[in-house]
Amino acid sequence: MTTAMLVESAIQAGLTLEPGDDGKLAVRGPAPLPSELIEELSARKAEVIDHLTQPGGVGVARPAAPHRRCRVCQGGLQPGDADGAWCFSCSYFLPRGVQ
Fold first, then answer.
1. Contacts of residue 2, Cβ cutoff 8 Å, sequence gap at least 6
2. Which residues does residue 61 pair with via DSSP β-bridges, in sequence order?
3. Which of 6, 39, 62, 63 is the most exposed place for a label (fewest CB within 10 A)?
């Protein structure tokens, strides 16, 4: 498995990978963390950090935010301020906490 594939597997498992100071790799995600994946990330920590920090690298690997749709036109919602989100297409405002 290539390093890119390992990072992608971690993201698909819901893990966030963040290179830290002094060669550390922070791994966060929903419990329980997949033990085989954690073992592989630990064994190849230096490679993963190099992959994340190389020029053009992602820096921090994290799962994508769930995509929400507008209730009015089914268009994509734009992240808004603390009160909610605006629809890209029809400018409908979705109050925070409403799914």
1. none
2. 17
3. 39
What's at 88, amino acid-wise? F
Positions of the chain with pLDDT under 70: 56-59, 62-71, 73-89, 91-99
Q: What's the rounded Cα separation, in Å, for the pair 17 and 58?
A: 10
In terms of C-beta density within 10 A (0-12 exposed, 13-18 middle, 19 or more buried), how is residue 74 classed? exposed
Helix (H) or strand (E) holding 55: none
Could you say which DSSP state residue 45 is in? H
Asked if the peptide bond before residue 32 counts as cis, ω within 30 degrees of 0, the response is yes
Q: List alpha helices for the chain, DSSP H.
A: 3-12, 35-43, 45-53
